[in-house]
Structure formats: C-alpha cells, structure tokens
Amino acid sequence: MALAWSSSLTAPLKQSPAHRRRGVLHAVLVAAMFGSTLSGCSKPAKKPPPTPEAGFVVVKSESVPLTVELAGRTAAFETSEVRPQVSGIVRQRLFTEGSVVHAGQTLYQIDPSLYRAAAEQAQANLQNANAVREAAQARANRYRPLAKIEAVSQQDLTDAAATARQAAAGVAQNTAALATANINLRFTKIAAPITGRIGRSLVTTGALVTSAQADPMTTIQRLDPIFVDIQQSSADLLALRRALASGGLGTSSAAVKLTLEDGSDYGPVGSVQFAEAMVDPNTGSVTLRARFPNPNGLLLPGMYVRARLAQGIAGSAMLVPQQGVSRDAKGTATVLVIGPDNKAIQRNVTAERAIGDKWLVSAGLKPGERVVTEGLLRIKAGQVVKPVPAGSKPNRPKTAQPNRAAS
Fold it and tell me: Is residue 12 scored above 50 in pLDDT?
C-alpha cells in the first residue's frame, strides 16, 4: 500500500514535456480572457455628440436699389463726314491724321484759280450794273420836272423810271452772284465743321473731288463726352414699368457705371439720357442711351462694355447671403432660421434676384430674424443649435493630453 501511494504522488512529476506545454498554453489563454473581460467592463459610456454651432446673420428691412447689368457699345457724341462743296483738284492736306482738330480749322485746300476768277468776274459785273443803275436813275430824275411842264411826255417819264428800277434789280442780281462766287472761293478751303479727333484721309494731294461725291474725304468724331448705347429686353422693361406704376418700386437716379472689355471698371459715372420709343424687331430689345465724360479718350467708338444701372428701388426688402439660401427639387428657395429655443426651423422664402453676393428676399422673413449662413452641413431642421454670429471663430473643444508620468 505504501508503495502504491507513493507512486500516485509522484505521477505528475513524471509527465511528458508535451503535456507540460499544453498546460502552460491553457493558463495563458485563461489569463488573457480574464484580462479582456476586465478591460471591457472598464470602458466608459459614449458621450452624446456636441451641439453644432450655427453662424447666423440678423436680417433687416432696407431700401435696395435694383441694379441690372446690360451689354452696350460706345458711340461718338458727334460724327461729321467731311465732303467737298465745290469740285476741283486737292492741292494740300493741312492736318495730321489721328490728331484733334478744331471747328473752322482748314483741312484741305482745293485749287482756287477758277473760283477766284469767277469772283473777280462777278465783281466786275456788279460794277457795271451799278453804272447802269446810276445812269438810269439820273435820267428818271431829269424827266420828272420836265414831265410836269410837259416838256417830255408822261410815257417817257414812266419808261425812264422803269429802266432805273431794272438797273437797281440788275445791281441786286450781280451782288448775289458776287456773294455766290465768294462763297465758292471760300469753299476751296475745306474746314472742320466740329471739334474732335480726325481719322485717316481718304484722298491724297492731286486727287479730283466733286461737290456731289458720296464718299467722304475724312471723318471727325467728338469723343468727349461719349455715348453708350445699352440694350435691354423689352420684356424686362415692361415688367419694370409695371412695378413702378403699381408702387412696388420707387424711382432711382439715372447713374450708370461701366465695366470695360478687360474686366476693369471705368471710373467716371454717366447718366441715362433717354430710351428709344420703339423695340428693335430683330432683337426684341430697347436701346437706352447714356452719356459719359471721356476726358482722356479711353473710350473709343464701337467698344463693347457692360453697363450697371439702378432702374428702381425696392423698399422694405431684405438681403440674405447667398450661402444661406438653398433650393429644393422644385426650385423653392429655403432658409434655416434660428427660433427662440435655438432650434433650426426651415422656412420657404421668395428670392427674386441676386444683388451682388446676396439674395433679395421679398417674402418669408421678418426683420430681426436670425438666418443660418454657416455650418449648414452639420445642421438639420428641428435640431437644437448653438447660435454664434457669422464670421466668429469656431469653438473647438480641447483634446485631452496623455498622462506621460503614468506611462
């Protein structure tokens, strides 16, 4: 018995190495499972997500000018095509192409020989007519007392008086002929009819020009001030006039600003002069003409420009930044408004047109309401938000720093 007991006690000491390795592995697995169970029990509960911040703007009622941007082209204030009024050979060109000429300045000299001779002949004819008139008048004067004493017949007096009157008429005719000859002689010097910038010459020295020719010799354009012809749709103009007539809009000033072809702003401000009383059947548009100062000659005729002008004033309107207005699948404009309990409320609004980077809202909002413009992607309708003024720096929570001492 003693031998059997001692062998049973010593049996574990005689286990094989494979059995010992399996026992160690089992102990390690049990310890790992126990440790994971303890760590799982020590995890804290998830915190609720923080209240999203909503950047808002406070809308207010104000008078907003309704500005439109329309296409236009510049046109010269005055244009004069220079043509000859007498025929002849061009002897001189007395201007520099592209320069500024003044009214009355001589531009061309036509050969004046024939016209000077015609003027001298008219002068001689006038002198002859004056001599005839003097003789006829003297004869009529002598016949008058003689007719009273019946030294000459009454018919002779009548004929002498008629001859004197005919001679006076001849003087008047020759005076007019002399004036015409002098005018034609003066027309041999072709003068500038207006002050402006002259273009290139279409005739050269030695060319023959005629008084009835259709082609101009050159063109002068007055560029300061300058006109801008603006095209506006007749439908838009009709809607504007109806709004003005109904009292929904107020009248505004006729000031106009220009944007040039390169995108830069033209400094001086112009004014609308008039609107044509007809619609172009080809384009369906009405032409508005504006006048601009052009002291430096920057604007040239035919340039394409964009004109901005206020055609009316919307009273009691509200402007909302464009990022705060969205549209649904039907195209209805909506905004998120922060209610008294800081809940985001979706509101349908009427956004008529864009004014710069804002929408003009005519219905759906009240002055003093807070419209969300920042953080819209994190906010849903009916959600409680943390309102902050738009443009404020976001309040980001500080992250916990690791405890380096414990490590």
Answer: no
